[in-house]
Amino acid sequence: MSKGFREVDAYQARITRDGMRNDLVQNYTESDHSAPYWLDVLTEAEQGSSDFVGDDTERVFPFVCDHFDPKDQPSYQLYRCHRDVVSSDMISQTSVDKLQRELVEQIRGQLNSQYRINVSSEQILLTQGREQALTLLADELVSESSVVALENPGRAVYQTVFQQSKAQVQWVDVDQDGLTIGDALNGSNIVCVTPSSHYPTSVTMSLNRRQALLEQASEQGFYIIEDMCETDTHFLDQALPLLHRLDAHDRVISVGCLSSSTAPQLDVGYILAPKEMIARLSDRQPTTDCNALSMAITTQFLALGYYDNHIRRVRHTMEQKWLAMLSALECHMPDYPYYATPGSTCFLLTLPQTLDCHTLITRAAMEGIVLQADNVRLNSASGQPRVVLGFGAINIDDIEAGIMKLKPLITTLCQPM
User: Fold this and answer.
1) In the chain, N or C: fewer CB atoms in 10 Å?
2) What pLDDT score was predicted for residue 45?
3) pTM of this structure
């Protein structure tokens, strides 16, 4: 069985936590509370099939990405911030402009403390999450003659946004060091990249590749859009510097957002760019789409240190879940190759050639197992079926049981009819 790039070998399931950290740090140095959407998936499965097993689905196995177990969210701290904002009548007494300025100042502090990025408030524009930020950038930077380089594989939202803007999309492969550069980027006007824990392969772009990408951007004059939305949940102690921190020629535009582990309903994001570009973007969108209450609550949540404490807990939880996923896959599905690197939020599982992913997802939902296929763009010539196994939303005690339940389902679907 051939292994994929940076695929975790079997021995890693047996190494200690500290051993894993030491090996990886050395390697990287060198080179409103709505119900989770997966409940809707299960409801659709129940309505669409008489084979739906009602008793089993009382125990749900959500192997989904960009979602976290509601029990891991800082509900009490958010409630306190909401209570303080409402009781102080802050919304009616404070202008929207002032709320924006206060939130921007808190985000500036986070960028400095977490990533050692020192910027002015004129370099930050608030948005409503990742997609709204990308749409705004596409409106500003893209014309019908623009060529936009996207990661292959990568998030479907990038393809959706830039194809809607009439740009020419150019797919660029991701290897063991991240997005490939050189000739693959020739002719590009914009390059979109996720250097820290790429989705869905979980590859981290090497320092040499980051520096070479920045050098090529400076020489050829293209912009780099850096996705840093999930960087704060990366559980490794030592992370490589973001492209924005390394950029000396104002070629990097970063898109960030508060972790979805906090409160997806707030959906606060931001664009980090040279102040001249922020000024142009502001002219396109004079006021942010973030509502006043969300901004006030988020500002309080950051100012009181709740976010920092929450992220520390999330990183610990995600590390334990990552190890549980690794152990379960090695124990119960050893013949199925997968891509994963410590610090990632998902495992990319390669399936037998004869298996149809959409059939698997439908049948899995009937068994209470929720998988995703609509949030990743796989532009693979081999056509090898793969499925993304996220683990942020699932209870750690359910991970092994979910993998054990998924294995026989895959085996059954691969058998000839």
Assistant:
1) C
2) 47
3) 0.81
